[in-house]
Amino acid sequence: MKLEFPKNRKDLGWALRRLQARWVRARNKATFIGITGSSGKSTSSSLLAHILSAQGKVHLQAQANTMPALIRTLYKRLRRSGKVDYVVFEAGASDFGTIGAMAQMLKPSVAVVTMIRLEHFGKFRTLEAVAGEKRALVEALQPDGLAVLNCDDPLVLGMASGAKCRIATFGQSDEADYRVSDVYAAYPELLRFTLHWRDGSLNIQAPFPGEQFWLPTAAAVATALELGVPPEKVIARTASFEPLPNRSTVQEVPAGPQFLVDTAKAPWHSLNIALEMIAKAKAARKRIVLGQISDYAGSSRKYGAAYKIAREIADEVIYTGDNAHRSRASQADRDSGRFIELRSAKEVSDHIKQTAVPGELILLKSSSNLHLERIALAWTHDVKCWIAVCGKSESCQMCGLYEVPFEEHRDFLAKRKLARRRHRFRWLLGG
């Protein structure tokens, strides 16, 4: 058999890191938990890690949910972090085979699946194809493993068929092992619901502004209880969780507006959920800023359909980005100010600052590429990076350079890197 060796240094480095990652995983005795789904997986992962930290040391890898992120987690971070009790990894599907490859590397003890929706439409095309990809995480479990499945979603529940492991289900269905009832949230009142399970009922309170967050919350709570976290700790840790940035995160400005920042993603299948959240919220004035919508079949008429719903909810609807002209708003709505078309985040920011009313509620909703979170950040920081599309997938908060003009980012990073090197080797320089 002829062995094929990497052709260049980059490929060789990648191959070595994969081998190191497999070596670390094979020797690590932590409980490895993989979480996937078309929505809610980042919140489920982060909340579960927060709950489990009451029981032991946890390593969380969320939002960056690809094979490179998994390999970095295993070969670099776990290798250096000492004993870890739990590893929580969010697994995202970008193409056929991606979940299967990560599952084989992760070798999870627990697999959690939140829901199946039509994501990455250009690749998967059908719900069944998405479900088949996500199912690989469950299929990687050993007989002593645990799958935590959303029984309200037939495609998720179907993953229990043929599974070798133990199954625990959550949902609003009467058949759920962890049944959710009495869900309520109407901002500024935050999420609460009752969870019924084999040992009774729990009154769960979570710091989320919308009812849709019951699902990732229930997924995390059910998994924690299955792993033996005492109910009182689950309740307390859930209530103390700090929501992830830009995922329906509340930002209140003293004597100014209140923002619901939901700019991490905007798939068509979940857009109505964000709009319903605003509809149920209680505020004297409501505005909706809509940027890029993703993951839909057919024409861009979806923007027109979204506007029809949004105009019935908000006093003003603002469309921004390259698709701002697709609202199909009437001339009467444009003339009255019910609809406003602005092409850039900076224009939207300037408009809101000029017209803001104390206590009003403003939804910022878009795919991450437009970075509309800058509109809210501009009320508390001196935002100077207003480039339309920077090409970075990470949020402005994670990037951290929103107070630096985009054209100066490279020089700024180079200077910061040099300063760190000088600090690190100051003893050689006589400092």
TrEMBL record:
Positions of the Mur ligase central domain: 35-223
InterPro entries linked to this entry: Mur-like_cat_sf (IPR036565), Mur_ligase_C_dom_sf (IPR036615), Mur_ligase_cen (IPR013221), MurCDEF_CellWall_CoF430Synth (IPR051046)
Molecular function (Gene Ontology), one example: acid-amino acid ligase activity
Annotated keywords: ATP-binding, Ligase, Nucleotide-binding
PANTHER family: UDP-N-ACETYLMURAMOYL-TRIPEPTIDE--D-ALANYL-D-ALANINE LIGASE (PTHR43024:SF1)
Protein name per UniProt: UDP-N-acetylmuramoyl-tripeptide--D-alanyl-D-alanine ligase
Organism name: Mesorhizobium neociceri
